[in-house]
Each structure stands twice: as C-alpha cells, then as structure tokens.
Amino acid sequence: MGSGKTTIGKIIAKELKCSFLDLDEVLENELGTSIPEVFKTKGEVFFRKKEHQFLNEIVSKDASFILSTGGGTPCYSGNMDTMLKEADAVVYLKVAIAGLVQRLMPEKEHRPLIKNIANEDLPEFIGKHLFERNNYYLKADHIVNCDNKEPQRIAEEIIALLG
User: Fold this and answer.
1) Binding-site residue ranges for substrate
2) Is the CB of residue 66 less than 8 Å from the CB of residue 5?
3) What structural domains does the chain harbor?
4) Residues that constitute the known binding site
5) Which of 34, 44, 135, 149 gets the most CB atoms within 10 Å of its CB?
6) b (16+ CB within 10 A) / e for 17-40
7) Any idea of its EC number (predicted)?
8) Which residues pair with 144 in a beta bridge?
9) Bind-site residues for Mg(2+)
10) Interval 59-115: pLDDT, tens
11) pLDDT tens sequence across 118-149
C-alpha cells in the first residue's frame, strides 16, 4: 500500500505499449462499488475471496499486460504462487516505513486498512504489516528499492530487469 504500484505500472505499460490493469479497479468495476464500501458492508474476507477470483481470471488470459495488485493480494489464497506461475515477472516495489508513512498520511481517509489508525500509530501499523507480509513479498522475481526515486526512474529500472 502506497508503494506506487499503480503509478509505476501505468508508466511501464505505456513504455512497453501494452495494456495496464489495476486489480482494485477491476474489483470495483465488477462489484459496482468502491473497495472501502466493500470492506465496510461485506468485510475483508468477502473482499479477499473476490480479489482471488478476479486475479485468477485475469492471469489466465493469454494477453500481454501490466497488472498492479493491492498490497495484501500476494498474502492470501495462494495468490503469490499463482502470480509467480502465470506471470512473466513479479516485482516487489520496496519502500521504507518512513517513506510509506509520508505517502499514506495524506490519503488515509481513502484507505480502509488505515483509515481508523491514529497518525502516531501509523508507523508501527505499517511496520507490523510489512513484517507479516515480508515472506510473501520476498518471493517476487525482482525486488526494486523505491526510496527517494521518481516513478519514471523506477519504471526504467523495472523495464531493464524485464529485458
């Protein structure tokens, strides 16, 4: 969350002249409502089931595209194994806790997982989530350090990795 997946994914897709998909946008379009509303009315378990379903539908397509997932996607329902098996490459955009706090603070209200976290508790919350998710993230084919880098530079690094 907050690492720049959507921004960087769009840049890469444009550079490689392929389509870009954001799994969260697919979910919102298919469910006809926003992700915060899904969390509020149906809960996280429902959301994760739908996320898994749509991820599998997307990656089974025989097409060239860049896919941005939610930060929790790799951690549930064997999703990371599915992505590693089906995708040409899985990239983890690694950002330090301080950088994530700085990026997420202005948009807390639009992020269901952190909306109700006190500002002073946000660094600990993010650190805990990164610790819990680290084993999944570290399975990625490529890990790109994104601290203090502009999105265009990160995109160029990833394109070079993809060869």
Assistant:
1) 24, 48, 71, 133
2) no
3) 5-162 (3.40.50.300)
4) 2-7, 24, 48, 71, 111, 133
5) 149
6) eeebbbbbebbbeebeeebeebbe
7) 2.7.1.71
8) 93
9) 6
10) 988 788 999 999 999 999 999 999 999 999 999 999 999 999 999 998 888 887 888
11) 999 999 999 999 999 999 999 999 999 999 99
